[in-house]
Design brief:
alpha+beta, five-stranded antiparallel beta sheet, 17% helix, globular
Length: 191
């Protein structure tokens, strides 16, 4: 399979921009990952969740709004009947064993662009666009939410590395520009 080209390649640049001094925001595109979606039918929630957890290397599938890390990847419950499994590009491609009557598995590897946003002003920046309370006491490590960013459905989760945003490839360029331009007021590092 051919390696996908980032939709951000034409505009992404490395360096520090905007306000001088210590930057308040760092935005990094994470590349080289796999993404599988597991969709359960109403009566097969347990079977589909168990298969997603098995492939992630977790003991249990996460509850809605939660993320767990396993030996093979990160498993997040993005909707009541859906999980997403993020894997490293270096990891062997997972082979789901899910009967059609229990659910469906969709390979979404090239459907999303992954941004990691860190820094003292990361939450403030994202709250310019996302209608979520991102304080760590509310949106803690291991939380995930599907929300809207400029009328585009996005997925946001927090882990030890910071805030992570999965954007549809078709909208990634315009959403990156909004984030980047808004982050200039806080001082921005693009990686």
């Amino acid at each position: 399979m051919a390696k996908a080209i980032s939709p951000l390649q034409p505009i992404r640049r490395a360096g520090q921009f905007g306000a001088p001094g210590k930057p308040g925001v760092t935005i990094k595109e994470v590349t080289g990952f796999g993404l599988l979606q597991f969709s359960a039918w109403g009566a097969s929630l347990a079977q589909t969740g168990a298969e997603a957890a098995r492939l992630a290397g977790c003991s249990l599938a996460p509850a809605p709004g939660h993320v767990v890390s396993g030996s093979n990847g990160v498993l997040m419950r993005v909707e009541p009947l859906k999980w997403w499994l993020l894997t490293s590009a270096a990891a062997p491609r997972p082979e789901p064993e899910l009967a059609a009557e229990n659910g469906a598995v969709l390979d979404m590897q090239d459907a999303r662009c992954w941004l990691r946003i860190t820094g003292d002003k990361a939450e403030t920046l994202l709250n310019h666009f996302l209608p979520l309370n991102l304080r760590p006491s509310v949106f803690a490590d291991g939380a995930v939410a599907t929300t809207a960013f400029h009328h585009v459905g996005v997925t946001l989760w927090r882990n030890a590395d910071g805030l992570n945003l999965l954007l549809p490839r078709s909208s990634a360029l315009s959403l990156w520009q909004l984030l980047s331009e808004s982050a200039h007021q806080y001082g921005l590092v693009e990686e």
